[in-house]
Amino acid sequence: MITSQIEHPNVVSRGEWLAARKELLVKEKQLTRQRDEVDRQRRELPWVRVEKDYFFDGPLGQRSLTDLFEGRSQLIVSHFMFGPGWKEGCVGCSFRSDHVDGALVHLQHHDVSFVTVSRAPLVEIEAFRKRMGWRFPWLSSFGSDFNYDYQVSFKKEEIATGRVTYNYEVRDFVSEEASGLSVFYRSPAGEIFHTYSTFGRGDEMVDTTYMYLDLTPKGRNENGPHHNLGDWVRHHDRYDAAGFVDAGGRFVAEEQSDSACGCGQ
After folding, report:
1. In the chain, N or C terminus with fewer CB closer than 10 Å?
2. Residues 49-69, mean pLDDT to the nearest whole number
3. What is the predicted pLDDT for the residue at 208?
4. DSSP E strand boundaries for 80-132
């Protein structure tokens, strides 16, 4: 737990505080209106028809992309960093996923289905899901092009170059898997369209914990080597475990640290 102190706070009278608060409120309202406008423009983005048939492995058997809509017209896919052979999923993706279960019933009653997809085989996903206690639908895209086509997994040929395409640009390779959110629409005629994807910090908007932290005096307080959630976030059953999060978002236990690469992001 991070317990650093705030030095030399600016302490004023209630009247001075109220004046400063009203000044900030103007900016907060401007930001709200700006966010509304960005959201509107997001909804007006052009769509891309999904021509390829994608299939996923789930607890109830193989599912098509169409099946994932479950009769609704909108689908959100959470791209969770969990590759074949990994013992557990990415710390950041786990943090994001901790915010999902409570929202599911509300999304489902507003014409939105939600699923999480990883490239790890289903048996590995199910073991980790059970450990975490999550209930949201989580499917495997193992053997499918889905992760590659939506640029959240990278093939050996790309990795060998040291450069991969992620978040709409070519950048240095960090991990064989990456995170993000993608949104799809299914028309009454059954056509499926890709409408939106966001990566990197773009998915912070769904991390409610961050929204609460942004209200506090210390804020996110990410002042470690990563300057992001890797400085403090852990799997929710690992906050008392010694170790660190590596550049690829994976937790390295203390007993493994001596042999770890020591890389940071």
Report:
1. N
2. 97
3. 96
4. 112-118
**Mean pLDDT over the full length of the chain:** 93
Q: What's the pLDDT at 226?
A: 83
b/e per residue, 11-20, with b = 16+ CB within 10 A? eeeeeeeeee
pLDDT tens sequence across 115-128:
999 999 999 999 99
Predicted TM-score (pTM) of the model is 0.91
Contact 114/137 with Cβ under 8 angstroms? Answer: yes
CA gap 250, 230 in Å, rounded: 9
Of 207, 181, 179, nearest in space to 195 by CA: 181
Residue 255: left if φ>0, alpha if ψ -120 to 50, beta else—which one?
A: alpha
Pairs from 168-175 (Cβ < 8 Å, separation ≥ 24) = 168/199, 174/247, 174/248, 174/265, 175/81, 175/247, 175/248, 175/249, 175/250
pLDDT at 129: 97
Lowest-pLDDT choice from 151-155, 195-199, 224-228: 224-228
User: Which amino acid is it at 78?
Assistant: S
Give the separation between CA 257 and CA 265, rounded to whole angstroms.
16
> Under DSSP, is residue 116 helix (H, G, I), strand (E, B) or coil?
strand
What's the token pair of residue 173? 């390779």
Token code pair at residue 181: 């959110």
Distance between CA 238 and CA 98 in Å, rounded? Answer: 13
Residues 6+ apart with CB under 8 A from 154: 148, 164, 166, 173, 176, 177, 178
Kind and range of the H or E element at 244? strand 243-245
How big is the chain by its Cα radius of gyration, in Å? 21
Give the separation between CA 24 and CA 16, rounded to whole angstroms.
13
